[in-house]
Amino acid sequence: MKASELERMFQKSFSVAKRVRTETDIGASAVSVAFAACTLARQIFESLSTVTVLLVGAGETIELVARHLREHKYRR
């Protein structure tokens, strides 16, 4: 494969990705593991106010999970 072919493929993939983001709802909500975990927890449990949450991990992702939970008033 020539460099020019590879360049053309990259440009086309970026163009398609931009079109998908602008023409669909794929970018309607935040996309991160932390946000997805909190969204799933809210779907599984009607109210996390009665549930004790154990966060396991270290680093940015677990900090984001904790922040998302605090923003939704989950304290335990």
Automatic annotation (TrEMBL):
Domain Quinate/shikimate 5-dehydrogenase/glutamyl-tRNA reductase: 40-75
EC number: 1.2.1.-, 1.2.1.70
Keyword NADP tagged: yes
InterPro entries reported for this sequence: NAD(P)-bd_dom_sf (IPR036291), Shikm_DH/Glu-tRNA_Rdtase (IPR006151)
One of the GO BP terms on file: protoporphyrinogen IX biosynthetic process from glutamate
Main enzyme class: oxidoreductase
Pfam families assigned to the protein according to its UniProt record, in alphabetical order: Shikimate_DH
Alphabetic keyword roster: NADP, Oxidoreductase
Annotated SUPFAM superfamilies: NAD(P)-binding Rossmann-fold domains (SSF51735)
The protein's name: Glutamyl-tRNA reductase
Organism whose genome encodes this protein: Escherichia coli
Biological classification of the source: Bacteria, Pseudomonadati, Pseudomonadota, Gammaproteobacteria, Enterobacterales
Chain's gene name: hemA_2
